[in-house]
Fold this protein.
Amino acid sequence: MHIMAAGSLRGALSTIIGNFINSYDYPITCEFGPAGLLSQKVINGAVCDLFLSADKSHPMSMLELGMAQVIQPFIGNQLGITTTPQLARQYPNWLQLLGSSELIIGTSTPKDDPCGDYVVQLYKKINQDYPQLAENINLRTRQLVGGKTTASIPAGLLASEWLINTKQADIFIGYHHYHKKIAQISQLATVVIPDEYNINAIYYMAQLNSSAEIFALYLMQPESRGIFIENGFIPL
């Protein structure tokens, strides 16, 4: 069985796959990457039995094209802000931090990576209450990862860690579940986005081959859900 999965699932899913193989002796290979780019590969003919996306739109496209047998949600996430400890102390309020006119904000790439799409949704929420602030934030936002033409993140590093430590950005808006790992990195700090502004990212799977059903069912079991939650994801 070959799985294509959103890169944000790497830590949790690798553990779940390992547990599954130990229990069932069933061979699985997995490719991780931005869900939008992986989706295009599948649509263009790449072999894939189970597609795990950070959103609903890409699995839905496969269903509408007659490629997917079934799609269903399996876990949730939200957005979070990463910056330096110094900036987090200077701007403890998330809007003050994003609104600081001298700071560059890094994000992932919309359409190619759902995380970038979720940031666009966040900015729309900010714009409803603070249109001038939203415009200023947009002007300082750079789409630095997760796209067809963006640089690859070095192996073993988080996007926020790499971009901030190499001074490509002062702030990174990415997935909240990474905050557990970021808490162990002394050069980084996290800032919470309040629920009323945050985005609920619902991850969906698309089963493209009946051979994937056994793992799709395993992914929905309490043991697997517990591993996702341990890795910072949000139960549905």
Notes: The mean pLDDT is 97. The longest helix spans residues 114-129.
